[in-house]
Amino acid sequence: MTTVQTQTPPRSTSKQISRFLRSREIPVASALIVLVVVTATINPLFLTPQGVKDLLLNATIVVILAIGQAVVIITRNVDLSVGSILGLVAFGTGTLFAVYPGIPIILVFLIGMAFGAVLGAVNGLLVTIAKVPALVITLGTLYIYRGLNNAWAGGTQYFAGDRPRAFSNLSTDTIFGFPLITLLAVVVVVGVAVVLAYTRAGRDLYAIGSDPAAARLFGIPVTRRVLGAFVASGVLAGLAAVLYASRFNAVGATTGTGLELDVVAAAVVGGVAIFGGSGTVVGAAIGALLLTTITSALTALRVDKFWQQAIVGVLIIAAISVDRLVSLNRARKLRVSEARNV
């Protein structure tokens, strides 16, 4: 008679699995999967190749903006001006092609990202130098940037026909069935996730968000890091703006209006703590995909637009409430542990 010995996984592996299952991204990803399955069951046309392509394209811009927003929120700040930055840079993109028809597309991307970096740097400098809450500063720059765009654009709009076909094709070309600009968004997600997880600058952002005063005591350059977070948000908003100009038919004075609320919602729903110090850009990307999928799914199910907005509002409240409860629970466990060690 032989006995079969079973090997239990190493404790470290068990801890990693347990940590993964407790991660904030799991509930969001699960909700996304359930939503897609239910919608596809009721309306099979929802997951046709064209339907999936449209779904990914609709999410791409918000995903890139949510990544930049997540970087800022992790530092216990927020950037409400991203919609206005996108509008300003998108109209600038249309202007570039109108003034310089033969301009290389890669140069347009670089100029757009540099333009976004400058606008993001203005936000960062005002927040770090004036010591005014980012909510107030970026609410002000939201209106300033929008006003500049209105003054610059006026009634002018640039349409798809005003841009090179190769530029417009960026949002229609696919690789293995996936839109090119969506694959670009995936590269951005992976790149920023690696920076946050494996570089000192990335870890510093989490430390700042957890406790800015303690971060200063440990020698972390808080001002420089927070400024860098706003610049990064501006760069990604500039990138999203150029892709927006490629994706949509027209850009003008109203481009990007109200988009900042969707972006903040995506980051928060994706598990980025509004109080700073925790969350991932992967979660923010999944949150953006979930919110855009909700809109598409409810539209496919012919649900009134009011309920679409109401559901997004419920998700935001739920995400913030859960984050608060988790924080209180961790604080309670820490107090109990300290009491036992005394």
TrEMBL record:
Q: Would you name any one GO CC term?
A: plasma membrane
User: Which cell locations does it reside in?
Assistant: Cell membrane
Annotated keywords:
Cell inner membrane, Cell membrane, Membrane, Transmembrane, Transmembrane helix, Transport
Recorded GO molecular functions are: transmembrane transporter activity
The answer to whether keyword Transport applies is yes
Its topology with respect to the membrane?
A: Multi-pass membrane protein
One short Pfam name that applies is: BPD_transp_2
Q: What is its main location?
A: membrane
Chain ranges passing through the membrane: 28-48, 55-74, 80-100, 107-130, 175-198, 226-245, 251-274, 281-300, 306-326
Under the heading InterPro entries, the entry gives: ABC_transp_permease
- PANTHER family tied to this protein: ABC TRANSPORTER PERMEASE PROTEIN YPHD-RELATED-RELATED (PTHR32196), AUTOINDUCER 2 IMPORT SYSTEM PERMEASE PROTEIN LSRC (PTHR32196:SF29)
Free-text function comment from the UniProt entry: Part of the ABC transporter complex LsrABCD involved in autoinducer 2 (AI-2) import. Probably responsible for the translocation of the substrate across the membrane.
Instruction: Relate the assembly described in the record.
Output: The complex is composed of two ATP-binding proteins (LsrA), two transmembrane proteins (LsrC and LsrD) and a solute-binding protein (LsrB).
The protein's name in its UniProt record: Autoinducer 2 import system permease protein LsrC
Q: Which organism is it from?
A: Marisediminicola antarctica
